[in-house]
Specification:
By secondary structure, the chain is of the alpha+beta class. The protein contains eleven helices and eight strands. The longest helix has 26 residues. It comes from Hibiscus sabdariffa (roselle).
Length: 331
């Protein structure tokens, strides 16, 4: 027998015909809809790891409870974003996967901090771009690369944006991170060009000598330098962090050649030096078969991933030269 399902109004009518001494009333009990799925707070990147300006923006949006007010705040950001010069509205700078047209330009200053400019043909999308431009500009490349897309949850904009807008926002962040990494790679290659997202007047990569010495220390400058070939291990010229970096890369990438140079002395007084025993900046030159078939961007991401723990605990900047054996032999 099938269960008998009756509406509340029908139940009330039936009850009225029954010989009860007291009247019976029916009340509709409100039910709660399941909350929308979102990332657990334990899975989100801690806000204190985000750039200071981005933290300020997030706190501002969190202080606004009404979705409409958040939307208006976003529109305000868009209206106040400086327009991007037409010469930078190129295919290379265009964000793919956005409902509206969006362009992002990036460039580095002399300290290798990345700055952004952006524009869009939609005020709302321009507001999203402005949020990222204001939140990320002026920060070190490594810090920008460590930003997890889930920070968007902290903004609380999900109810104000369509799914396609949310996806476009994440695509903007991905393009900004990719441009930052590409700029750093160009800087390490000694490319002094400027303009469509390049660094100007940079000489970050020093020539590497073909020295037979395994390890050396420049006593005048305080530079620690360690090199090894074919598995030879010598790290006497490095401090504790430099030694850890060298051992980690040797273990995971089995390099044919590896040179790690501590150049933290060049950045004395830099923000990254505080609280990290002075070992904050390193030059790394590595030759490994693990780089075969990988682009420069993927090689650098691989190294950053291996050294993520160091980056989280005081390592401020890496200057990386990553080559395959065939690339070295071709020279």
């Amino acid at each position: 027998m099938k269960p008998l399902l009756l509406e509340i109004s029908e139940l009330a009518s039936i009850a009225a015909t029954l010989p009860f001494s007291r009247s019976i009333s029916f009340q509709k009990i409100p039910t709660k809809s399941p909350p929308p799925l979102q990332a657990s707070s334990t899975q989100l990147q801690p806000m204190e790891e985000l750039p200071p300006k981005l933290q300020e923006i997030i706190k501002l949006f969190q202080s606004v409870e009404e979705p409409k007010a958040k939307y208006e705040q976003l529109m305000f950001y868009g209206k106040n974003l400086n327009p991007l010069d037409t010469q930078f509205k190129t295919r290379e700078n265009k964000v793919e996967g956005c409902v509206s047209q969006v362009w992002v330009r990036a460039y580095l200053d002399q300290d290798k901090n990345v700055f952004y400019q952006a524009d869009s043909d939609s005020v709302l999308t321009k507001g999203l771009a402005a949020l990222l431009v204001n939140g990320l500009s002026g920060r070190p490349v490594q810090e920008v690369l460590r930003i997890s897309p889930d920070f968007a949850v902290l903004l609380g904009l999900q109810q104000s944006l369509t799914p396609s807008r949310n996806n476009g926002f994440l695509n903007m962040l991905k393009l900004m991170q990719r441009k930052a990494l590409e700029l750093l790679i160009e800087a390490e290659k000694g490319d002094g060009s400027s303009g469509n997202g390049q660094i100007a007047n940079d000489n970050s990569e020093k020539p590497v000598e073909n020295s037979t010495s395994d390890s050396k220390v420049d006593e005048d400058s305080g530079v620690g330098f360690s090199s090894s070939k074919n598995g030879e291990d010598s790290s006497s010229g490095l401090g504790s962090r430099g030694t850890r970096i060298k051992k980690k890369l040797e273990k995971e990438l089995s390099p044919i050649e590896l040179e790690v140079e501590d150049v933290s002395y060049q950045h004395a007084g830099h923000a990254g030096v505080r609280g990290s025993d002075g070992e904050t900046h390193f030059n790394v030159r590595i030759v490994s078969k693990e780089f075969e078939g990988k682009s420069l961007v993927k090689r650098h991401r691989l190294i950053y991933g291996l050294l993520d723990e160091e980056l989280q605990t005081g390592l401020h900047a890496l200057s990386i030269v990553a080559k395959t054996p065939s690339e070295v032999e071709a020279k």
